[in-house]
Amino acid sequence: MQAPITLGHEFSGIVEETGKKVTRFKKGDRVVINPLITYGNKPPEYDIYDGFQFVGLGSDGAFADYTVVKEKNVYALLDILSLEEGALVEPTAVAVQALKEGDLRFGQTAVIFGASPIGLLNGACSQSGRCKQNCCAGCIRNTA
Fold first, then answer.
1. How far apart are CA 72 and CA 60, in angstroms?
2. With bands split at pLDDT 50, 70 and 90, how would you rate the model's confidence at 142?
3. Is the CATH number 3.90.180.10 carried by domain 1-86?
4. How many CB atoms lie within 10 A of CB 61?
5. Which of 12, 14, 37, 29 is nearest to 90 (CA)?
6. What are phi and psi of 71, to 5 degrees?
7. 3-state SS string over the chain?
8. Phi, psi (5° rounding) for residue 110?
9. Global pTM?
10. For the chain, what are the domain ranges?
11. Is beta strand 109-113 parallel, antiparallel or unpaired with respect to 133-137?
């Protein structure tokens, strides 16, 4: 895909239409997506970026009226979650993956640099059972 592209990769939505080969979803289903598109030639633990693209960077994303995502990248959104909460699934997955890759162990202290939404989710995830304590360092811009 070439520019212009409509951005947005952290989203949930309602299925409007499906392709002929789609079996797991139907019109009206509430869904969330994994925006990472790979060739799948290598196991993810070896190279998760094997020929990757991203929904919202390589194809139209969440800010478009409609977007097309392969079935393998679509997941059902639990009924207990709102569509707004569903939009937090991908950034929360990023935070969880960061903790896994950082080898954070139970009882350790974590320092998170950057109080962005993903930084704050890292803090929440690390507090949810792994960390004894954590500290989030960020900058606050003076707008006065």
1. 17
2. low
3. yes
4. 21
5. 12
6. -55, -35
7. CCCCCCCCCCCEEECCCCCCCCCCCCCCCEEEECCEECCCCCCCCCCCCCCCEEECCCECCCCCCCCCCCHHHEEECCCCCCHHHHCCHHHHHHHHHHHHHCCCCCCCEEEEECCCHHHHHHHHHHHCCCCCEEEEECCCCCCC
8. -115, 140
9. 0.80
10. 1-86, 88-139
11. parallel
How long, in residues, is the chain? 144
Assign residue 28 a region (left: φ > 0; alpha: ψ between -120 and 50; beta: otherwise). Answer: left
To which residue do tokens 């592209």 refer? 5
pLDDT over 70 at 140, yes or no: no
Contact at 8 Å (CB) between 32 and 77? Answer: yes
Does the pLDDT value for residue 49 go beyond 70? no
pLDDT at residue 79 tops 90: yes
CB 38 within 8 A of CB 52: yes
Percent of the chain with pLDDT over 90: 41
